[in-house]
Amino acid sequence: MKLFNEEYFIRQLSIDCVIFGYQELELKVLVSRVALPNSVWTLPGGFIRQEESIDLAAQRILEERTGLTDIYLEQYRVFGEPSRINHEIVEGFNNMKKEWLSKSMLDESSFQWLSKRFVSIGYYALVDINKVSPRKGMLDTSVDWYNVKELPTMIMDHNEMVDAALETLRQNLDQKLIGFNLLPETFTMREVQELYEAVYDKPFARNNFQKKMLDLNVLERLEKKFTGAQNKAPYLYRFQKVTQQSMEEPQVIENLS
Amino acid sequence: MKLFNEEYFIRQLSIDCVIFGYQELELKVLVSRVALPNSVWTLPGGFIRQEESIDLAAQRILEERTGLTDIYLEQYRVFGEPSRINHEIVEGFNNMKKEWLSKSMLDESSFQWLSKRFVSIGYYALVDINKVSPRKGMLDTSVDWYNVKELPTMIMDHNEMVDAALETLRQNLDQKLIGFNLLPETFTMREVQELYEAVYDKPFARNNFQKKMLDLNVLERLEKKFTGAQNKAPYLYRFQKVTQQSMEEPQVIENLS
DNA sequence: TTTTATTGTCTATTTTAGAGACAATAAATT
DNA sequence: AATTTATTGTCTCTAAAATAGACAATAAAA
User: Fold this and answer.
1) DSSP H or E run through B5
2) Which of A11, B121, B162, B254 would suit a FRET pair with B156, their CA atoms being 20 to 30 Å apart?
3) Measured between beta carbons, which residues in chain A are less than 8 angstroms from residue B55?
4) Cβ <8 Å between A13 and B55
5) Beta strand B26-35 with B39-42: parallel, antiparallel or unpaired?
């Protein structure tokens, strides 16, 4: 089996994904560790098939790493500096070359292709971290969640990719009402607020946050949640997909940030 | 001379530019007409050199068509449907092939490359239309400004590219204070308002528009402009680049739209 | 029964946006 | 020279929205 057939994929073009998850009050990012043979960290990425749309390619790459379909996904920027050559991968491949060539996993022309400069399309994804069982890519030794504020140093411009993705996420979070993709099916108002505080890295006033969030008319109030704590039980909420009726009256979404 | 050497450029990746100008109360876009031999309309575009950053490639393409350097330029979206094959160009090339091959302007492998599916990075640019002297590309028969509301039908998804660029422009216009790139060095308040009205395709209240615009503290008031009209002479303004002092106190930019 | 921690919601205050009004002025008209 | 016309610059008033402050309602612990 050929790892990277140069005719099968578009050359010198890749996709890299910043996969955001939320757990224990922290915004996290999924990062792969690759050993070839030196250990380096990278964002999950891949290539675009000749007959495949870039959005579907991104979806495919995400499914490969998370097992999830129907992920919230957004293209946010292209990274195209001519210095974008994956030296670590090339060096690693040089070491594996002999073995892989003998197993027909790679041929010389594939190797040539991969050692060139790459333009990469950046996507970011929002997932319910509880639903993800991270899967290793072919070359990965591990795949783990890292706090976005404590990421390892990754190859090339991958750290910069995360910074840009986070900036875009902050601009879009409540404008596009996409935050709920990071939460489980049901949640309390406090949990929504804590998510916002993790993303924007700043506190919000509880009374006004709740007022604004409810005024969006996108949350369905469910039963109370008895937590066993010595306080009033909070309501559970569910994100209500936009209905026909609410579509008719154009909805003005205000900034919480 | 080779038109499109496949080793010189990144294959299957292109850049297309939506160049916005403003004149006579209308937002306009620069569109090329190509005859090969059927007449088709396209956005100015080009390819990325092997050792060139994508932003510099876009700048180069823009300079080729407008003669301007230092253009306001922003990457806004990648278009990557697998159906993005330039049938008109391929058909036209088929007709010119014999002639171009004989003149060594093209070789067989270059042609193969160009007939494949392309992923295109969309950039939009804002220019002072008075400073531009549109230049034809190698294959163009004409390059003209079209009202953004009355564009000709262009190849592939180029009309959709303009729609997406306009949407991004509307989101960014006053948030990033980029509108002044469409105006000459000095202008009246009315001219700024008319520009905004052309971009958003809706009227603004004169009194409050002026108040907000001045409260941004980015306009420098110059002398009065005597127009010869039977009214009070309006002030001229100039866009004041952000100073060190105004950088220190973080500036909150409000929406005018 | 009282205390504690949090929740849900209300009101008051401050800030901002939008609507209306009007004097100032440059040129045309009388 | 006085009046009229068309616009400009700016003011105030009102409506709406954001922010801050307050407090009763729980659920469990003391």
Assistant:
1) none
2) A11
3) 80
4) no
5) antiparallel
